[in-house]
Give the backbone structure.
Amino acid sequence: MKKITEINKEISLSVGVDKIIQEANKLSVQREKFEAEELARSNKALYAILSKVYELFNTAVKDGCIKETAREMRSLLKERGVKVQSNTPALTCFVRFVFNSDRKRAYNYASTLMAAVDADIKPENLAAFIEGSNGVEECKKAYKMKDETKQRVEAVAAASVDVMDILKTMPSAANITLPNASVDLSDGVDFAFIVARSVGNGKFELLRAVPKSTKAMQTAAVKELAKNLIEVAAKAQTETKEQKVKATTEKAVKSISAKSAAKMTLKELEAA
């Protein structure tokens, strides 16, 4: 049998979830009224609803029932015929529940709220934040750009570690001696830098050794090598994918049927 404390906890969670769902339903009704009467006139009503969605989300987190609330919202959305994937952010789930909107619109609104979360904006200051950012669309763009920039920075940082390992172990292309060359490896750097003049066809004229190598120089050089490593890997992945698509298409054309042709694009048929 369940302990009294466990039963009380379940009851408390259930009450918390019900309360938030009821408030979300009220917001949904308010949203319908806004769309019918105020959409063409002002964005203030939209910002007010988004502020309340944001506040409701924060309440669910604070009350410790965010998991159960998101699960219940997803279930209720399914009953409405709105599919929500398991990898959908909880905040987006709140937005879709209140706005009953398509994915694109929900993404725009949720991205605006995500931008507010990142900026530590309180619900009562959300409207001013959106207006100061020139609207929902600009908030979404800024958030998306920030997210993509963060991913790029993380990818370069990870690739930089690989580049350093490669440089420390790879065999040399050639051993050379430059007259009067003396290099000071300061800041604990591992590599010296040579100024070279490109003459084309992968050939270079080695001119001078840079007298002093610093951490900043090494970091900058490794960063550029890391970017190149990412680009080469991405290109190879794209080429492999294209080769697989071509092979699959050619195989499908050889044994073409109504069923297989129906799933092929015109581009795939042209390429075969």
Q: What stands out?
A: The longest strand covers residues 194-200. The chain has two domains: 4-146, 221-272. Residues 221-272 form one domain.
